[in-house]
C-alpha cells in the first residue's frame, strides 16, 4: 500500500497538471484496487442471469465525440473497471476489432458491449455502444442512437469543441436523448477544462457544474461517469409483457454461422428455438443462438425487452438482412418499428477486379462487406477498358478508402478504383428522347452525361460545411473556402481564440483534397464537418479526353465550367507522361462541347530508315524519308491507339 502511494505521489509531483493532487491520488488508488479485485480471480466475469435484471436497472448509451477525443480509450476503461475485460492485458482499443481501425487509429464500425456495474448494492446492466467520430461514418452514429436512451458527449479538454462534436450533439439532441457531458484528457499539461466548459455553455447551454472531468488514459473519474450514467440516464421504455418485437440495427457475416444480427429488443422476449420472422422480407427462421456481447460473445438462452443482443438463425444470404427491419415471432401481427432513414451516398466510384477471373470472388466479398456497411450502395457497371464491375456509392472519400482497404485485408481482394465523383441533377429540354419538357435525371457517371444541347438546367449537390479554427488561421481558411466556390453563412466566436465558420460549399469541391488542405494551412488545428443541403443551380460541362480524335469514355469527367482550363491542362499533361510512346504520333486533347481546351503531342518512335546508306545521291535519302512519312500518315489514319491497362490505372490514381 505504501509503495503504491509513494509511486503515485512521485507521478503527481512530477506533473504540471492543474488538478487537485489529493483527488487524483484517491481516484487512482480506488481505480487500482478495483482492477485488482476484478483481476484477482481466474474467471473474473460475473455469472448473472441477464433476463432477470429488471428494466429500471438497465441503461443503454453511446459514446459520441470528435475524432481522437478518446472514445475507445474511455470504452476500454469502462470495460476494465466493471470486470468485462482484464486490466493490464496489453490490449488497447478492445472494441476496435477491424485491422483498418487499429492501423488508422480511428473507429470505423460502432461496437456494442454489455457490462455489469454494482451500484448501491444492486447490479445494473449497462449496454455500451462505441461510435465512430469521423463525418463519413455518421450513419453508424445515427443507427446506434436508435437503441439508446442517452449519450456520453466526450470532449478533449485540450482541443475543446470540434466540428464533429457540434454535429453529434445536435444528432443526439434531435433524437431526444439525455446528454452527459464529459471532459477527457485533463491530465495533459495544456488542458484547460474551464475554457472548454465555457465553450459548451456558449454553444449548447450546458452548465459547467454538469460537466464531468476525467482522464480515460489514467482511469481518473471513471466511477463518476458510471454513476452519472445510472443517475442521469433513464431506463428504456419497453414492455416485457407484450409480443416480441426487436429492431435490427447492425449485422455481419460469419463464415460458419451465416448472417448474425445485432438487435435492440423493444418488447417481449425471445428464446433459443423460437420461430421468428423478419417483417419486411417476410422470411422466417428458427433461433439457433442468442448471445450478449461482453465484449466477447456470451451465449444465453433468453433475451428480454430493454437488452441489446446478438441473434443467429443460420441465415445464409446477405440479401435477407435489412438494417432497420423489425423482427417478431411467427404468425404474430405487430406494428413495425420506425427503422432508419436511408443513408444518401455522397461520393461514387467504380470498382473493378484487377483481372476478370477474379470477378466472382470480388462480387462475393462486396456482398458480405455491404452487409456490414449498409450505407454503401451497389449497382452493376461495365467499362470497355476494365470489363465488368460495379459502381458503388459512399458517404465520403474516407469511407471509400476504408471500404477498399477492408476488401483487401479481410477478403484478399485486389480491386481497381476509378476516380470518385458526385451525383448531379440535370433538367432536360423537350426533345424526341424526352417525354416532356422539364424531365429530371440524376447522373454520377460521366459516360451517361447527355449532350449539352439537350440540357436546360444544371444542378450540383451542396453541403453546409462547419469549420472550427483558431482565429490566427481565419484568413487562410476563408480564402480556401472562397477558392472552392464557397459562400459564407455565418461566423461565431466560441471563445477568445477560436471561431466557428459555416459555408455553403459544392460537394464536388470538398470530396477530394479539401480536408487535407485545411489541415495543412491550419497546422492541423482546424476541424471540418458537413451536412447535406440539397441541390443548387450551376453550370457544368463534360470534359472529354481524345486520343487521335477518338474519345476515351473512362477518362471523361463532369466539372464546373470555371475549372475547365486548369483540369484540362492537368489531364493532358499527366497523360503525356503516362502513355507509352508508339510508332505513330498521338494527339492528346481535352475537349469541352466540341472545343479543344488543351492539347499535348506524344512524339512517335523514329526508325532510322537511312542507316543503311553510306553515300551516293542525296535523292535516295529523300525518297526513303518520304516513304516513311507517307507510311506513318496511312498508319495514323487507320491505327487504333491502345491505352495499356497499367497506364489507365496510373491515370485514375493521379486524377
UniProtKB/TrEMBL annotation:
| Tr-type G domain location | 56-237
**What's one Pfam family the UniProt record gives for this protein?**
LepA_C
Looking up HAMAP family in the UniProt record yields: LepA
Class of this enzyme: hydrolase
Q: Which membrane topology term applies here?
A: Peripheral membrane protein
Subcellular location(s): the record lists: Mitochondrion inner membrane
| Similarity remark | Belongs to the TRAFAC class translation factor GTPase superfamily. Classic translation factor GTPase family. LepA subfamily.
SUPFAM superfamilies (UniProt xref): EF-G C-terminal domain-like, P-loop containing nucleoside triphosphate hydrolases, Translation proteins
Q: What is its EC number?
A: 3.6.5.n1
Q: Which organism is it from?
A: Ignelater luminosus (Cucubano)
Q: What does the entry list as the binding residues for GTP? A: 65-72, 130-134, 184-187
Which InterPro entries does the annotation name? EF-4, EFG_III/V, EFG_V-like, G_TR_CS, LepA_C_sf, LepA_CTD, LepA_IV, P-loop_NTPase
Superkingdom of origin organism: Eukaryota
Write down the PANTHER family for this protein, in alphabetical order: TRANSLATION FACTOR GUF1, MITOCHONDRIAL, TRANSLATION FACTOR GUF1-RELATED
**Which molecular-function annotation in GO is an example for this chain?**
GTP binding
Keywords noted in UniProt:
GTP-binding, Hydrolase, Membrane, Mitochondrion, Mitochondrion inner membrane, Nucleotide-binding, Protein biosynthesis
Read off the lineage from the record.
Eukaryota, Metazoa, Ecdysozoa, Arthropoda, Hexapoda
* Enzymatic reactions: GTP + H2O = GDP + phosphate + H(+)
What does the UniProt record say this protein does?
A: Promotes mitochondrial protein synthesis. May act as a fidelity factor of the translation reaction, by catalyzing a one-codon backward translocation of tRNAs on improperly translocated ribosomes. Binds to mitochondrial ribosomes in a GTP-dependent manner.
Q: Which GO terms describe its biological process?
A: positive regulation of translation; translation
* Protein name per the record: Translation factor GUF1 homolog, mitochondrial
Q: Which GO terms describe its cellular component?
A: mitochondrial inner membrane; mitochondrial matrix
Hydrolase keyword on record: yes
Amino acid at each position: 500500500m505504501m509503495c503504491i502511494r509513494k509511486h503515485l505521489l512521485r507521478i503527481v509531483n512530477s506533473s504540471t497538471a492543474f488538478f487537485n493532487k489529493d483527488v487524483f491520488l484517491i481516484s487512482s488508488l480506488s481505480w487500482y484496487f478495483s482492477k485488482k479485485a476484478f483481476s484477482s480471480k481466474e474467471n473474473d466475469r460475473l455469472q448473472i442471469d441477464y433476463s432477470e435484471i429488471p428494466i429500471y436497472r438497465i441503461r443503454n448509451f453511446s459514446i459520441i465525440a470528435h475524432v481522437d477525443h478518446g472514445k475507445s480509450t474511455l470504452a476500454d476503461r469502462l470495460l476494465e473497471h466493471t470486470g468485462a475485460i482484464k486490466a493490464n492485458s496489453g490490449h488497447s482499443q478492445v472494441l476496435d476489432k477491424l485491422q483498418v481501425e487499429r492501423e488508422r487509429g480511428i473507429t470505423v464500425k460502432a461496437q456494442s458491449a454489455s457490462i455489469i456495474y454494482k451500484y448501491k448494492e444492486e447490479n445494473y446492466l449497462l449496454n455500451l455502444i462505441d461510435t465512430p467520430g469521423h463525418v463519413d461514418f455518421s450513419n453508424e452514429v445515427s443507427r446506434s442512437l436508435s437503441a439508446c436512451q442517452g449519450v456520453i458527449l466526450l470532449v478533449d479538454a485540450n482541443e475543446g469543441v470540434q466540428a464533429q462534436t457540434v454535429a453529434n450533439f445536435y444528432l443526439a439532441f434531435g433524437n431526444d436523448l439525455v446528454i452527459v457531458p464529459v471532459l477527457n484528457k485533463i491530465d495533459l499539461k495544456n488542458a484547460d477544462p474551464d475554457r472548454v466548459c465555457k465553450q459548451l455553455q456558449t454553444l449548447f447551454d450546458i452548465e459547467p457544474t454538469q460537466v464531468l472531468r476525467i482522464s480515460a488514459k489514467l482511469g481518473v473519474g471513471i466511477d463518476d461517469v458510471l454513476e452519472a450514467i445510472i443517475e442521469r440516464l433513464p431506463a428504456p421504455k419497453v414492455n416485457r409483457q407484450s409480443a416480441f418485437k426487436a429492431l435490427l440495427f447492425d449485422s455481419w457475416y460469419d463464415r460458419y454461422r451465416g448472417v448474425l444480427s445485432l438487435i435492440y429488443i423493444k418488447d417481449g422476449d425471445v428464446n433459443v428455438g423460437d420461430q421468428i420472422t423478419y417483417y419486411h422480407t417476410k422470411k422466417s427462421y428458427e433461433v439457433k443462438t442468442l448471445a450478449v456481447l461482453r465484449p466477447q460473445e456470451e451465449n444465453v438462452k433468453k433475451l428480454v425487452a430493454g437488452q441489446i443482443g446478438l441473434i443467429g438463425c443460420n441465415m445464409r444470404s446477405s440479401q435477407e438482412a435489412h438494417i432497420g427491419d423489425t423482427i417478431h415471432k411467427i404468425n404474430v401481427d405487430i406494428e413495425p418499428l420506425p427503422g432508419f432513414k436511408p443513408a444518401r451516398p455522397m461520393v461514387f466510384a467504380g470498382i473493378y477486379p484487377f483481372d476478370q477471373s477474379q470477378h466472382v470472388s470480388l462480387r462475393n466479398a462486396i456482398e458480405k462487406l455491404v452487409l456490414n456497411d449498409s450505407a454503401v450502395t451497389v449497382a452493376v457497371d461495365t467499362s470497355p477498358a476494365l470489363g465488368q464491375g460495379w459502381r458503388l456509392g459512399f458517404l465520403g472519400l474516407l469511407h471509400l478508402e476504408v471500404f477498399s482497404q477492408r476488401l483487401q485485408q479481410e477478403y484478399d481482394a485486389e480491386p481497381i478504383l476509378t476516380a470518385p465523383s458526385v451525383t448531379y441533377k440535370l433538367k432536360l429540354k423537350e426533345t424526341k428522347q424526352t417525354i416532356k419538357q422539364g424531365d429530371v435525371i440524376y447522373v454520377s457517371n460521366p459516360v451517361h452525361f447527355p449532350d449539352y444541347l439537350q440540357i436546360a438546367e444544371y444542378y450540383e449537390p451542396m453541403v453546409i460545411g462547419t469549420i472550427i479554427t483558431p482565429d490566427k488561421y481565419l484568413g487562410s481558411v476563408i480564402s480556401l473556402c472562397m477558392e472552392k466556390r464557397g459562400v459564407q453563412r455565418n461566423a461565431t466566436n466560441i471563445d477568445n481564440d477560436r471561431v466557428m465558420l459555416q459555408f455553403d460549399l459544392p460537394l464536388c469541391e470538398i470530396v477530394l483534397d479539401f480536408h487535407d488542405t485545411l489541415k495543412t494551412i491550419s497546422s492541423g488545428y482546424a476541424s471540418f464537418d458537413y451536412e447535406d443541403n440539397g441541390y443548387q443551380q450551376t453550370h457544368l460541362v463534360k470534359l472529354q479526353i481524345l486520343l487521335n480524335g477518338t474519345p476515351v469514355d473512362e477518362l471523361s469527367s463532369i466539372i464546373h465550367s470555371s475549372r475547365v482550363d486548369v483540369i484540362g491542362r492537368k489531364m493532358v499533361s499527366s497523360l503525356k507522361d503516362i502513355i507509352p510512346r508508339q510508332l505513330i504520333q498521338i494527339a492528346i486533347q481535352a475537349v469541352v462541347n466540341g472545343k479543344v481546351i488543351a492539347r499535348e503531342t506524344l512524339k512517335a518512335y523514329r526508325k532510322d530508315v537511312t542507316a543503311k546508306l553510306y553515300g551516293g545521291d542525296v535523292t535516295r535519302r529523300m525518297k526513303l524519308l518520304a516513304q516513311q512519312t507517307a507510311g506513318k500518315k496511312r498508319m495514323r489514319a487507320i491505327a487504333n491507339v491502345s491505352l495499356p491497362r497499367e497506364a489507365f490505372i496510373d491515370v485514375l490514381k493521379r486524377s
